[in-house]
Specification:
single chain
C-alpha cells in the first residue's frame, strides 16, 4: 500500500463528503502571480550524491502557492506541484538518510507557506454547523498532501526533535491551533492528528498547547460561542487527559472546573457531547 493511502489510526475521516453543490472558497494565501513551474527529475532516478539538493529544490517548488479561486489559471503548474508533493510523501516514507539537518528549515517553510494562513471569513456569518453545509477549502488538493507530508515527517524514524524544535515553536503551534476554526471538516480531521503528533514529540510545547486550547474554549464559552473545531480539540484532550499523572496538578483540576464543566452549557453541546463526556470521565 502506498504511503499516501495508508490509514492513520488516529485520523478518523469525516463521513460528510464533499458534493458538487457544496460551497467552496480559498483561504487568504500569499499567492505568487504568473509563476510557472516545470517538473524536476525524479528523486529515485537521481544519483545518490545529488538527491539532497534535488529534494531541497522540490521543497522550494512546493512552497509556491497557486490561486485555486480560478480553476483555469496555472493548471499545468498546479498539477506539477501535486505530483511533486506525492513524490515527496513517498520519498520520506520509503527512503533512508533523507532527513538531514539541512532540509529541516526548508520542510517547515514549505509546510508553513501552505498551511499556516488566515482563514477567510465565513460566507455565512450566521453559520450553524447543525443546519448549514460547511464551506470547503478550494486549495484542498494541495493542502491535503502537505498535511500528509508533514505527518510522515513527524512520524519518520529519522525525525530529530532536537533539530526540529528550532523551527516548530510556539508561533508555529499558535497558527496551527487557529486553523481549528476552519469550516472544512477534512482539514480539522488532519489538524487533530497533526496536533496530537506535535504534542507527543515536543515536550517543551505541551504546557503551551494546553494553555492555548484552554483560552480557545474560554473564548468560545464566554464570548463568541463560535468555534468549529470543538469536538476535534476535545478528542485530542481526551488522549492528553488519559496520560495525566496522579495526583492531579492544580492546573488540571482548574481546567475541569472552569472549562470542561461549563462546556456542558455552551451552544452546540450535541455536536461534541460524546467527546466532552469522554474527557470528563478520564478525571
Amino acid at each position: 500500500m502506498s504511503a499516501t493511502k495508508r490509514v492513520d489510526p488516529f485520523l478518523r475521516k469525516s463521513s460528510r463528503l464533499p458534493s458538487k453543490n457544496r460551497k467552496q472558497h480559498s483561504s487568504s494565501f500569499l499567492i505568487q502571480k504568473c509563476v510557472e513551474i516545470e517538473p524536476l527529475a525524479g528523486l529515485k532516478d537521481a544519483p545518490t550524491e545529488k538527491r539532497e539538493e534535488l529534494f531541497l529544490q522540490k521543497l522550494q517548488q512546493c512552497s509556491i502557492i497557486f490561486d485555486f479561486s480560478d480553476a483555469m489559471v496555472d493548471v499545468k503548474s498546479k498539477e506539477v506541484k501535486r505530483a511533486c508533493l506525492n513524490e515527496l510523501i513517498e520519498y520520506i516514507t520509503s527512503e533512508k538518510g533523507v532527513l538531514m539537518e539541512r532540509v529541516y528549515p526548508e520542510i517547515i517553510q514549505m509546510v508553513a507557506n501552505n498551511l499556516l494562513r488566515c482563514l477567510s471569513p465565513s460566507d455565512n456569518p450566521d453559520f450553524d454547523p447543525e443546519e448549514d453545509e460547511p464551506t470547503l477549502e478550494l486549495a484542498w488538493p494541495h493542502i491535503q498532501l502537505v498535511y500528509e507530508f508533514f505527518l510522515r515527517f513527524l512520524e519518520s524514524p529519522e525525525f530529530s526533535h532536537q533539530i526540529a524544535k528550532k523551527y516548530i515553536d510556539q508561533k508555529f503551534v499558535l497558527q496551527l491551533l487557529e486553523l481549528f476554526d476552519s469550516e472544512d471538516p477534512r482539514e480539522r480531521d488532519f489538524l487533530k492528528t497533526t496536533l496530537h503528533r506535535v504534542y507527543g514529540k515536543f515536550l517543551g510545547l505541551r504546557a503551551y498547547i494546553r494553555k492555548h486550547i484552554n483560552n480557545m474554549f474560554l473564548r468560545y464559552i464566554y464570548e463568541t460561542e463560535k468555534l468549529n473545531g470543538v469536538s476535534e480539540l476535545l478528542e485530542i484532550l481526551g488522549s492528553i487527559i488519559n496520560g495525566f499523572a496522579l495526583p492531579l496538578k492544580v492546573e488540571h483540576k482548574t481546567f475541569l472546573q472552569r472549562v470542561l464543566i461549563p462546556l456542558h452549557k455552551a451552544r452546540g453541546l450535541n455536536l461534541y457531547h460524546s467527546q466532552l463526556a469522554y474527557c470528563v470521565v478520564q478525571f
